[in-house]
Amino acid sequence: MACYMGIDIGSGYSKGVVMKDGELAAFQMVLSGADYRATAQALRRELLARAKLAQDEVAAAAATGIGAGNVDFASKWASDIVCTARGIHDIFPSARAVIDLGAQSSRVIQVDWNGRVANFAVTEKCAAGGGQFVEVIANVLRIALEDFGALSLRSEEPVMFNTGCAVFGESEAVTRVAEGARKEDIAAGVNKALADKITSLTKRIEFNGPCAVCGGGALNAGLVKCLEDELRTTLLVPPRPQIVAAWGAALMATLMQCGDQQPRCIS
């Protein structure tokens, strides 16, 4: 039995997976908080408990994300762009690009035939380019974040946002609410603004083939629909889009230990 762990310490959430004999044995997500080192340790304990493993049964662990350097039990560290490419290639081998919808920023990554990064582009480090913009507006609208996407799909006349800044976007949303705009139209407008920003990234990246989407933003059905409309394509969405980078980190751990061994896809 070969077991490997992948840890992704993100700015908002931290994700972890345990791979056992090439298959997903356990996964977990927690708020990252301010102490990344403590978060990583807590995440490892939870993953081991869920996978019913002892610490010494994990052959290797790899870490990625903004707080990867704080994962002191990892034997390898890799960039989240590399891990996302590896992870999405394992899930969708035909994908030649992936849109990663993160909390602080979004990125478009060109993936070659063997899962390596060929090129990438990233939005500026501003919440208006990532999922935090949606969280801010969901709070203004007093709706649950998980309901945002479905609500936006009921819009008949999306509100157009005129700013690329999350702070000003929040003020604009408050004004729109005061003016009587429907919640679904405001939500649809936010998704459209995000999709416009992300679509502009795809123009910098040339790729021929299917495109996938991952990250927490991939759970926002309204945003995915906006992206599909603008890109005129059907995006590939993995069953657990939030853990793709963590899965890629686990794959990096196996490569470090097992050479060319190819684990199977997430199911």
Summarize the structure.
The protein has eight helices and nine strands. It has helices at residues 36-51, 80-91, 131-141, 148-152, 166-178, 183-202, 221-231, 244-258, and strands spanning 3-9, 13-20, 23-31, 60-64, 76-77, 97-101, 106-111, 117-122, 211-214.
User: How are helices and strands ordered from N to C?
Assistant: EEEHEEHEEEHHHHEHH
**Count of extended strands:** 9
Beta-strand share of residues: 15-25%
Shape: globular
Category by helix and strand content: alpha/beta
Describe it for me?
This protein has 267 residues and is of the alpha/beta class. The protein has helices at residues 36-51, 80-91, 131-141, 148-152, 166-178, 183-202, 221-231, 244-258; strands at 3-9, 13-20, 23-31, 60-64, 76-77, 97-101, 106-111, 117-122, 211-214. The strands form 2 sheets. A 5-stranded mixed sheet has the order 3-2-1-4-5. A 4-stranded mixed sheet has the order 8-7-6-9. Helix 3 (131-141) runs antiparallel to helix 6 (183-202). The protein is globular. It starts with a strand and ends in a 9-residue tail after the last helix.
